[in-house]
Specification:
heterodimer; A: alpha/beta; GMP Synthetase, Chain A, domain 3; four-stranded mixed sheet; three-stranded mixed sheet; 4 helices; elongated; B: mainly alpha; 63% helix; globular; disordered N terminus
Amino acid sequence: MVSLDQQTDLTRLFDLLSSVVDPEIPVLSLQDLGVLRDISVTDDVIEVTITPTYAGCPAMNTMQADIENKLAEAGYQQVTVRQSLSPAWTTDWMSENGREKLRRYGIAPPATSACGQQKSTIECPQCGSAEVKRISEFGSTACKALYQCKDCLEPFDYFKCI
Amino acid sequence: MNPPSTTALLDTPLLNYCIALGDDSLTLGHRLSEWCRNGPFLEEDLALTNVSLDFIGRARLFYSYAAKLEGKGRDEDDIAYLRDCREYRNFLINELPNGDFAVTMARQLIVDVYDMGFFSALTQSQDPTLAAIAAKAIKESRYHLRRSEEWIKRLGDGTEESHERAQNAFDQLWGYVPEMFEMSDVELQLVEAGMAVDRSALKANWESTMQLILKQATLDVPNENWAIGGGRDGIHTEHLGYLLAEMQFLQRTYPGQQW
């Protein structure tokens, strides 16, 4: 059981949780994804707040368990993970770092912001071409759509903007 | 785990409201899940089941909130798996069998256009949880609608056969629409309290949007004068019984089973 010195520990807790990743896109940490919203400590109890990407995202339970396990390994026993719905998750919360990690992993990052402003074009994560076509609005997980590059012909996942 | 309470759910307007909204989502989510591995091609199979997941997710949020409101130790699973037909409050359109792909997509368009109006109004609810669920749902519905609208245009303005099947689909579903805009007295009380949405006020917008899409799809607005309702009062088509029999089988046979 680790005792909690609030200020120093909050930094440490965020550091610890930076290694907890999305089970379906393991290059993205929950922070990169914007799913980890807050950590607070009250009377030695740690409360971690996460928000679901999609209402039915089946990865949420795994994420919750991974957070609890990570903190337990580090000696923190009294942990509650709270799911918060409001404000609703948006891909705008994805960090620049996260977008770059996605691209390198072979997934095109969201091209527009949630209010519709263009951030970038959808580019093939393999060859960088902007000549792409949509194959399906939905892909292998709730958060992705399926695209194909017209130049190198590679199919790829596009992280939907929501 | 405590054994679930076997008494009927508390009869309070807000609780019933959450249950009904959860039932709409769960019955349609279940129907869509029946397309899993039956989709016309792989991408469409994935799309149908992805949309299904969104609806099941919504149901979980509404049921969890209902369970919290009730405060009797019941959880979302108890609400989904341990109620019978007469306790389900969904609109009938959501429980109807999938039919062919045209029927599934016609229903989806009808529901998606409705959901866009309904959930954007519900984001203004004085109840913070309902408003938060609505804010989440509206983003997903926007995406659902984009797809169902594209499909209906493609089917309607496609081949002779796809056109005919799409038209038949709307004709056979049209009589299930009026129910979606009929308000009960209890629900009107919730509207007055600023919690619920006045669905009757959504009808004009729904009709004009549908007219526009059907026209672009070269389909006719159905000229159907029959209407059937009763879902919000627990009066259902025979189809719901079969749906629940399959969905609830495991929990009914092995109560409390988890995996």
